[in-house]
């Protein structure tokens, strides 16, 4: 796994003040400053040219610029980016399931109209399936509008998965569970007496389960959304593993079907449910494997950036699992309509779903309000004197376009005995191989003597470290501006015995699914 490069000296080979790696990345990834219209098209970027929150594990290239316009986001679905197939592997299934549910509701030839109460659980389930695929497509297409909107879209994506999980439980509750011998007291009471020798009336236990299954599934849906939203914060080291685990939890609502196959002859009594139920769980295990292991890109980083990485495979196998689920839910509906018990109520189906939407909306609002994107944003001015253990600096007016013909100087001082560590969180200046037009210079100390490096374009260097407790940052722009400027964070660190900071690297951290 690549790591951010260590601080580089101005003596590195390449243009003055720039590292060879920076020069190479700039010439490789950025358009020329010649004014050629073809060269002005926004290029795809590498992992070290985008914000940390944008970087995916073991995916080295194919990143879109941030921020993009909505039009650019939509156009990117036809371009070879690392998100393109993430979109298509869920957009095509979305169209297939939309067609499937339209046939079920309107063209099935049944005597039951689409608005009949018997079909309310199917409406709940269908809305969950379609919303899950639609939100996944939306999140992957528009995730580069801004960091704040990226977080919001993926929060909505997690919420839609929880919504789908609860909708599945509603469909199971009405269409599948009533046909199980496990939940029939007339069958289970003599079965327990015969197999275990216990004289227990199972009526009360089964009634308690039926009363609790939907409330418990509701609580799990909200809890899973909270956990997944929280996994996008810094405390979570393995967010993809956590998200995979928490979305397995609602699957426990299908345990009665699994127990039915162990205790009774489910294969003989309902072969459709038996085959498609277990095949669905096989697809889910395969999907979880790819999502957690990050295979194949873990084996050969960079080779599967555009086609074949684990998230695309995860999408494909989740589609197959839901396809099998739709098949046996439809079969359960057929059996239900042959001899329906009491009709499902609006409150017990759609009412639950609407209440869940409200709860999930409140969860998302809470996380967005508490996130770093919604906290009080600093106002960045042209230069300044900064002291303390840590802080932020940014180009004037960031994240807006920086002004032309400006020269801004920031002087940073941390406590005595410590050194300054500067990490660029974002940089978008006019691109030029030699950084002749708009650039940021970083100096050791408060004078123009020892320059650590000069940076432009969108290439972000690794941690830049001073030799003492002072550092100076200077940004210069010419008459033509071409970007949103920069933002960087400085922190104070303890030097080691040799006077340099110990083990400062910025690791690629996975923030997406």
What are the SSEs and their pairings?
Layout: H1 20-29, H2 70-75, H3 84-106, H4 120-142, H5 147-176, H6 185-196, H7 203-230, H8 239-248, H9 255-263, H10 266-269, H11 271-293, H12 310-338, H13 347-370, E1 384-387, E2 390-394, E3 407-413, E4 419-428, E5 439-444, E6 450-455, E7 464-465, E8 470-476, E9 485-493
Parallel strand pairs: 1-3
Antiparallel strand pairs: 2-9, 3-8, 4-7, 4-9, 5-6, 5-8
Helix pairs in contact: 3-4, 3-12, 4-5, 5-7, 5-12, 5-13, 7-13, 11-12
Task: Describe the structure in your own words.
This protein is an alpha+beta fold. It has two domains: 20-41 and 376-493, Jelly Rolls; 70-370. The chain is 45% helix and 11% strand. β5 and β6 form a beta hairpin. The longest helix has 30 residues, at 147-176. The radius of gyration is 28 Å and the shape is elongated. The model is unreliable at 1-40 and 497-513 (pLDDT under 50).
Q: Which residues sit in consecutive blocks of at least 5 with pLDDT less than 50?
A: 1-40, 497-513
Kindly name the structural category.
alpha+beta
Biggest beta sheet summary? 5 strands, mixed
Shape: elongated
Mean pLDDT: 84
Range of helix content: 40-55%
* Amount of beta strand: 5-15%
Give, in order, the helices and strands: HHHHHHHHHHHHHEEEEEEEEE
Radius of gyration: 28 Å
Domain unit count? 2
Order of strands, main sheet, comes to: 1-3-8-5-6
Number of helical segments? 13
Alpha-carbon distance between the two ends = 18 Å
Number of strands: 9
